[in-house]
Amino acid sequence: MSESLRYIQAVNAALTWALDSRTDTIYFGEDVALPGGPFGATKGLHKRFGSERIFDTPISETGFLGMALGAAMTGLRPIAEIMYADFSFVAMDQIVNQIATVHYSSAGRWKAPLVIRMQQGYSPGACAQHSHSPEAYFAHTPGLRVALPATPDDAYQMLRTAVVSDDPVVVAEARMLYPTRGPVRTDAPVEPVGGARVVRPGADVTVVAWSRMVSAALDAAGTLAEEGVDVEVVDLRWLNPLDFDTVAASIARTGRLVVAHEANLTGGFGAEIAARAAAECFADLRAPIARVATPDVPMPAAPALQAVVVPEAATVAEAVRRTVRA
Amino acid sequence: MGQLDDYRLMARIRRFEERLTALKDAGEIPGSIHLCNGQEAVPVGACRALRDGDHVTATYRGHGWAIARGVDLTGLFAEMMGRDSALCGGRAASPYLSDPGRWFVGENSIVGAGVPIATGAALTAQRTGSGAVSVVTIGDGAMNQGNVHEALNLAAVLDLPLVLVVENNVYSEMSRISDMVRVRQLAERAAGYGLPGRVVDGNDPDAVAEAVTEAVDRAREGSGPSIVEAMTERLVGHYSGDAQHYRPTGEIAAAREREPLARIRRAADADLTARLDAIDAEVSAEIETAVTAARAVPYPDPATAEEHVYV
Q: Does domain B3-292 bear CATH number 3.60.20.10?
């Protein structure tokens, strides 16, 4: 069974599934219960499940992420919402020093089955403190799983996967994708963690993207097809666990690699993909690897400035053209 | 629990820390250690208020809490020796060890970070109706961390069964706490969270037990968190290599007059002194047995260094 849902509705459906099917789940964050969340992700959940299962917290990201950890260690399966991914920086100690390390540092005796749900990326007029794409920080941290759903279906499937995972999972959605609509397989079995996906086969060049840049890459592929360039698009989906095999297999077919993300260039996860490709796919590469990213500037708020820094389909297309010509 | 039981447990903690220092000096303990010599009455008194299933979260100065909670001595020594201990397999060592089997959520090397985590253990207790409480200990310096502030307010508004025990040992690491706050007692801050706060003699296990029991009872009946500030003194440095030149001459000597074991001994008659001597001998033997057993624990297999990152 498949329903046509907007991305944000798919998130809501996954959370409904979680609270309905698993009595050990509990949901909290800022303005998530009575207000239903600033984007409606938790709309109706408080009415249905009550304050025992979903409640509002003070504006205290460190406090409630630490609370999520302690609750997860002692038997619950918390889903904590960070309203904007930018606010996760307030709580980096709990994420990096505590949540990510407790399983390893206890030789596996404690588990931290929790989800940190957030949304990220720019939107018109949003300033530098509401526009970060921090996925590389989390992917850099051993112990965390990192999910970046690019479609309504993945918003549903990957969030459910995160909920049942016994490892802590950061699920970073893209705010700009919330209004997008697509088929959602609401009766699909819960998928295992991980797995990249070839979302458009092509022969000439591989574009690896995630989150919002997947649709930008697909748009670019459409444009380039008219120019005679056949682009393969890989939606990486999970940065951890990283399915590099799917990327390597694609490079083996195309011989060229472009990596596209909205996060800043330097130290972005594209650098990791490029390094792995250089190390493991050297013989298959026929052109230098290209990276598409926001240049190394804090995100400006003015749309006129955002337009020249935020990567879009045209940015990806231009990088592909350079790569194919090289 | 009587005075002799308290003495035995406090002596066990003291002897553990002293033996650990010797092992450190002998090169058997890699990394830095933070000792609680002089502060033993706080964990011993507080743990008297607890039962099985109650969680304890501590700091890197938490060996005493682990011991008071019944964590295995051999496991503690082996863990700190960097061996493949049954506690954390050598992955945590002195400042970050834990033991789920004894509901010891663990120490923490980040000042104040255990308070939000302990708040989560309290949330589980509340939501599952287990009747358990979550006790978290921090030092005086941690009261200036934002994580403590956030967690206390969070626990307060959720009426969680949390008890915060602040061990005020005068020093915020290597700086006097009186230079770092503008309140006379840290428990005064409880009012800012709408919580009860009490100051007790942290060198008296009975005083600590009485105050923590009151707080635990309140938590168990669903009336929310409390703060207990236990006034004590550190007989040793902040960490194993701390020369303590920042402490005034005579301060540690004076503290030795007030510390909990000396206090019991000073008030003891000949008969009690003999019994205390016997306890000391038993504790020393017990500690030596644990050290010997810990030395027999193998070092972790290097091939396992990347195990347990994920479930």
A: no
**Could you tell me if A286 and A165 lie in one domain?**
no
Mean pLDDT of B173-184: 95
Residues of A in Cβ contact (< 8 Å) with B101:
109
How many structural domains compose chain A?
A: 2
For testing the chain A interface, which of B79, B150, B153 should be mutated: the one with the most A CBs within 10 Å? B150
Note down the domain range covering A28.
Answer: 2-185
Rounded to whole angstroms, the Cα distance separating B236 from B257 reads 14
The pLDDT value recorded for residue A326 is 83
Residue A103 catalytic?
no
Query: Using a CB-CB distance cutoff of 8 angstroms, which residues of chain A are in contact with residue B157?
Result: 58
Whether A140 contacts chain B with CB within 8 A? no
pLDDT exceeds 80 at position A88: yes
CATH number at residue A222: 3.40.50.920
Which CA distances in Å does A125 have to A128, A211, A241, A293, B88?
Answer: 10, 20, 33, 19, 48
Mean pLDDT value across residues A74-91 = 98
Asked if B122's CB is within 8 angstroms of A103's CB, the reply is no
Same domain, A152 and A7: yes
Contact A74 B55 (CB under 8 A): yes
Nearest-by-Cβ selection for B154 from A67, A74, A104: A67
Residue A34, pLDDT score: 94
Kindly indicate the confidence band of residue B1, based on its pLDDT and cuts at 50, 70 and 90.
low
Kindly name the residue from A46, A130, A132, A261 that is annotated as catalytic.
A130
Coil, helix or strand for B205?
Answer: helix
Tokens, residue B256: 């030795």
Inter-chain residue contact B100 with A104, CB threshold 8 Å = no
Whether residues A143 and A286 share a domain: the answer is no
As a whole-number percent, the residues of chain A with pLDDT over 90 amount to 99
**Is-contact A211 A270, C-beta < 8 A?**
no
* Mean predicted lDDT score pLDDT of chain B: 97
Show residues of chain A in contact with B110, CB under 8 Å.
93, 97-98
Q: Read off the pLDDT of each residue in A145-164 and give the average, rounded to a whole number.
A: 98
Measure the CA–CA gap between A185 and A197, rounded to whole angstroms: 16
Average pLDDT over residues A280-290: 98
- For residues A230 and A83, give the distance between their C-alpha atoms in angstroms, rounded to a whole number: 39
Residues β-bridged to residue B141: none
Average pLDDT, chain A: 98
Q: Structure pTM?
A: 0.97
A60 at interface of B, judged by CB pairs closer than 8 A: yes
The CATH number that applies at residue A54 is: 3.40.50.970
Q: Is A318 exposed, middle or buried (0-12, 13-18, 19+ CB in 10 A)?
A: middle
* Interface mutation vs chain A, best among B85, B102, B135, B154, most A CBs within 10 Å: B154
Q: Where are the domains of chain B?
A: 3-292
State mean pLDDT over B205-229.
98
